[in-house]
Amino acid sequence: MFTFGNFSKNCEGYCDERIDESNLAPAVEIKSDPLRQPNQDTHHFKINEIDIHYLDQTKILQNLIKTDSSIMEAEKNHSDLVEGVYEGGLKIWECTYDVANYLCNQNRILLSGKHVLDLGCGLGILGILAYKLGAANVHYQDYNEGIIKHLTIPNVMINGEKIEKSRFWSGDWKNFIEVNDLKYDVILTSETIYNPRNQKKLLEALKTLLKPDGTIILAGKSYYFGVGGGMKQFLDLVEKDRTLCYENLWESAEGIDLVGF
């Protein structure tokens, strides 16, 4: 695990590659309905004394595949990821537990009173945890609109958190930073470095959305087999860019790293 902070505004010598932007998911802010309370079975994500409830993804999936073609394609291919179509939001990825453990056991005061972004939020576990650790407000972003509507927002609501102080977006990171001009004290992001073709967009989003004195907590694996991304690859990109500095907060023998910027 690593932590990141602003290092320099000088990006000299860094040049992004051209990417195909024709099929990027548009950024959409999704409004919550505080009067519409979810009434479904829930599971528990427990860390120390904190108990976070979340909806049963398998039941949500059955509804999503009827209305969301991107989720339908992923399910048909029995895949957790379909690049540029479905980016894994139905699953709680391993590193989510590592970020949660770090925040609860080693840095509980980091989020107190802060404006927090859960980037690539999926079920919204880290954002909900941020509220339980004293965050002033939390915003959530995930690639797929259906994930935000049917999982993230209901999960925030069933945990009794500050839905009126929460905002939700879906869409590609490049489009997200074009419609969201807000800056955050803390950005939490887990397992978002897996695709090397998205790493430059991720880095640009982190730089754009972080306050000058802000902190990023990023967790990911050393290498993602079958996809090609990994922590060393992303940190090489950070070092070439020369905008953020970072430190390694924790690493496991299984190849999981927690990094702070």
From TrEMBL:
The keyword Transferase applies. One of its GO terms (molecular function) is protein-L-histidine N-tele-methyltransferase activity. Keywords: Cytoplasm, Methyltransferase, Nucleus, S-adenosyl-L-methionine, Transferase. GO terms for biological process: methylation. InterPro entries: Methyltransf_16, SAM-dependent_MTases_sf. It is found in: Cytoplasm; Nucleus. Its EC number is 2.1.1.85. It is an enzyme of class 2 (transferase). GO terms for cellular component: cytoplasm; nucleus. The keyword Nucleus applies. Pfam families: Methyltransf_16. Belongs to the methyltransferase superfamily. METTL18 family. This is protein-histidine N-methyltransferase. It comes from Rhodnius prolixus (Triatomid bug). The lineage of its organism: Eukaryota, Metazoa, Ecdysozoa, Arthropoda, Hexapoda.
